[in-house]
Amino acid sequence: MKRTAIFTSLLIFVFSSLTRAQDIKPTEVKKVMEKVANWQIDNYQGLYSGHDKPHHPLDWTNGALYVGMIKWAAMAETDKYYEWLKDIGQKHEWQLHRRKYHADDHTVGQLYIDLYRKYQDKEMIEPTKEQFNFIMYHPSLSSLHWKTPYHQDRWNWCDALFMSPPVWAKLYNVTGEKKYLDFMMTEFKATTDFLFDKKENLYYRDESYMGKLDNGTKIFWARGNGWVFAGLVNVMNELDPKSKEYKYFLNIYKKMAAKLLNIQTPEGHWAMSLLGQKYYPTPETSGTAFYVYGLAWGLNQGILDKTTYTPAVQKGWNTLLGHVTSEGMLGYVQPIGAAPGKAWADKTEVYGTGAFLSAGSEVYKLYGGK
């Protein structure tokens, strides 16, 4: 028994030493981001997680990819990524996806506004402005309760907080019209009041998970909370840090960051059921990438303590690298879902790539990239 304990301790020491030894170099971060971005573009219509046809280019899955891809485009030493993204918008006449109120179908608006910032072409954002103006003047009266009539016309599932609020915040920023910010704040607060567990400092995916247990633990989905954590960052990036709105989001962000630090696995990822590491040992890269993105951002902004949080980012990034194939495919991305489940080395999804590229953009800065 004593020998076993010594051997186990030795293994832990070797593993932690290896992790420390894997110093992160900005040039290497950039190189792997390029490889992953290129693989995804080459396999944009690929079927890698069980769905039977490619996602629509304006679908939320691809919208999340574009959020990360445009961050990479700003780092790349060529405009080919901007051109690829711009071509998608032009082909679809800068329209949002099909459902007027549904947050998922707003996601692509983040791309349009970021492209507008680069090219200053108002056609890129006019359809988004028109649709959001309609929503503001005809707000949904639906309940946030799950499966009530038209319930997803409002943000009653936590994924929505990544998909739609950053579009409203970006639109406020580029137009200077506070009505977009005010509408977003009202709806975001309503969702948070409904889904945020103040004891655990995590979000339920939706009302249907409240009060349920999985192997005795509350069910907090890793990617679901990843959507929220990254969404908080993407909103705060659009706001004045001295504003009351920014401080509202910062308060949630800090609470979630502290919780995430506490529940990161020894391997560096986050379990698919955040409080159930024992029951979900399989790595999952989309949620992990969003957490690495958010934590690295906080370090870069001087919000989080470097001594406390940098090791978590380093472990998280290194574990992500371990799941990138030699060709550039990010594996262990949980397929589309709404709860903890399974992931496989040969399964990926476009939103996982988007999360990885977002993470890389902040890790690059954290380790000295210019």
From TrEMBL:
InterPro entries, per database record: 6-hairpin_glycosidase_sf (IPR008928), 6hp_glycosidase-like_sf (IPR012341), Glyco_hydro_88 (IPR010905), PolySaccharide_Degr_Enz (IPR052043)
Keywords of this entry: Hydrolase, Signal
Q: Which residues cross the membrane?
A: none
| Keyword Signal among record annotations | yes
Q: Is the Signal keyword given for this protein?
A: yes
Q: Where in the sequence is the signal peptide annotated?
A: 1-21
Which BP terms in the Gene Ontology apply to this protein?
A: carbohydrate metabolic process
User: Per UniProt, what is one GO molecular function of this protein?
Assistant: hydrolase activity
The UniProt entry, under PANTHER family, shows: UNSATURATED RHAMNOGALACTURONAN HYDROLASE (EUROFUNG)
Protein name listed in UniProt: Rhamnogalacturonyl hydrolase YesR
